[in-house]
């Protein structure tokens, strides 16, 4: 049954992909205003069994969402719910098909491991936030298994310390419940085997997006990182991170 379930989900997902790419190509120059990216992420996720629920209120267009990171499914869940753009490591841009879809979706690629590029990344993110489109940042810099959060990187908060005028920094807790350990994409696992596990999983996969109260403006990026992490840990019922 798992094999047939995987084939059925993959077939529906590919139909969604083909439909959206065709529509995107045929609706120039209105394609961005039509919202093809959000439509694709939402329905592609549902085709894979993702059941997204929302708690709290998203801040809207002028927002930097700061979220924990468990799986590639996070992109489908958050993007399908909010029309957000994402910040990603630059190596993703070269991935077959995924890189193309990320570029279509407005992904901002940065060199997270390059200190020399840090200033340019801050400027790049600041310019993106001025475009009145929500941006999502995963400040752990990698995915976890849902049992704890990795330390949030203060350097990634530099563009919002203090935030540009009108920009809200809002923590978002992505909660898969007990299924997080099962579907988490961690360690050295390749995307293919992880996707196979997701496709074969019985029943819907509940993902609750918990939009938490926005952070108070601050010029201290370390404080913003710590406050965002503490808020998400509390929402997920996780033990607070300790530097010791």
Features:
single chain; 244 residues; alpha/beta; 7-stranded mixed β-sheet; 9 helices; 7 strands; 15% strand
Description:
This protein is an alpha/beta fold. The chain is built from nine helices and seven strands. It is 41% helix and 15% strand. β3 (85-89), α5 (98-104) and β4 form a beta-alpha-beta unit. The radius of gyration is 18 Å and the shape is globular. The mean pLDDT is 89.
Give a brief rundown of this model.
With 244 residues, this protein is an alpha/beta fold. The protein has helices spanning 2-26, 31-34, 36-47, 73-82, 98-104, 118-129, 180-183, 191-200, 221-236; strands at 50-55, 63-67, 85-89, 108-110, 135-137, 168-175, 205-211. The longest helix is centred in the N-terminal third of the chain and has 25 residues, at 2-26.
What distance lies between the first and last C-alpha atoms, to the nearest angstrom? 47 Å
The number of distinct β-strands equals: 7
Summing up helix and strand content along with how strands pair, one would put the structural category as alpha/beta
H and E order:
HHHEEHEHEHEEHHEH
Q: Major β-sheet, in short?
A: 7 strands, mixed
Task: Detail the topology: elements first, then pairings.
Layout: H1 2-26, H2 31-34, H3 36-47, E1 50-55, E2 63-67, H4 73-82, E3 85-89, H5 98-104, E4 108-110, H6 118-129, E5 135-137, E6 168-175, H7 180-183, H8 191-200, E7 205-211, H9 221-236
Parallel strand pairs: 1-7, 2-5, 2-6, 3-4, 3-5
Antiparallel strand pairs: 6-7
Helix pairs in contact: 1-3, 1-8, 3-4
